[in-house]
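DM from R.C. (forwarded with permission)

"hey, sorry to bug you on a friday — could you get me a structure for this? deadline for the figure draft is monday and I only need the backbone to look sensible"
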Amino acid sequence: MQAAADRVEMVYGLDLAALWPRLWLILPETGVRQIQSARDSFAGAARLAAWAVGYAVLACWWWPSALAALGCAAVARSRARTALDALASLVEAAVDVHGRELATKIGLLPPEAPGRLVPDTGDGMSELFRKAE
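My reply, with the result:
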């Protein structure tokens, strides 16, 4: 997720942490569902990791549960990486596709202005959203 935030900062001058809650409000339902699905997949991997911890604790009394703990941990790690990669890509895509729309909605760009979102506009959005922290 940090790599996606760094790319958004580099290309658009946007602070993703400050931008995201506002962008989330204007995303279309299809985008919201895809992002929620990726987030749910990550949550499922986290639950599986919690099971791995439980099996590892049980291994103190019954050694075969250590095998289950290792298996759960390996699958959880793989699923978490896949889900987090998908989530980061979707968040970055949401900025790419809807960042300019947000700049227009908050009045930093006129609706008829041509072109793509530029770092100067992104810097202005970040400053506005951070509320001069």
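R.C.: lifesaver. The mean pLDDT is 93.
me: no worries. DSSP finds five helices and no strands in the chain.
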